[in-house]
Amino acid sequence: MNATTDKQLLPAFGKFIQNLRNIWAEYPDDETRMKKAHRLMEDELLPDPALQEHCKNWPSTEGRKNLLFYTDPDYGFVINGVVRVPGRTGSVHDHADAWVLYGLVDGHETLERFERVDDRSKEGYAEVRLTSANQGQAGHADLVQPYDIHAEQGSDIRSVAVILRSNVLVGRVEQGRYDRETHKYYTGSGPEQIPYELTA
Ligand SMILES: [Fe+2]
Q: Which fold does the domain 3-195 belong to in CATH?
């Protein structure tokens, strides 16, 4: 047995994955699955003291990166992490056809939602209007529907989130991106995926 196989998943993370697999097995639609996952994440994963301690050492994901914790081999859901440095501004985007649950483990962020206000007649052009900006606090998760236009803004302190995606995004589908200044709309690949083990 070598050092790698000695490592154990953080117990709360292992349990979260098992519970998600049970949800995916029982319910066929992503909306129901993700709403159940929302409750599970807030009740059992985000309050876990070992996870809260562990996340203090996660590396920054500056430069459009995500930590990749887990991809389910059977159901395809993905668990990522993001670590924002103080003062980080987030760009406006959607997640294409995926549902995304964005759970803050540490710090706080502003979660902005937008609506599209142009008539979609011009290729590569989109006007968006800010409709809400909610303060996201550690312990709470925000469920983002497919094609919802949004941005996550960092704060004056480091912030850390765990993200559950109903489906692999990167390499499967391109996400929408919206430039608020120039109204340019384009699609692109999601963040670079950096494998990272949530082991004790
Ligand atoms: Fe997002």
A: Jelly Rolls (2.60.120)
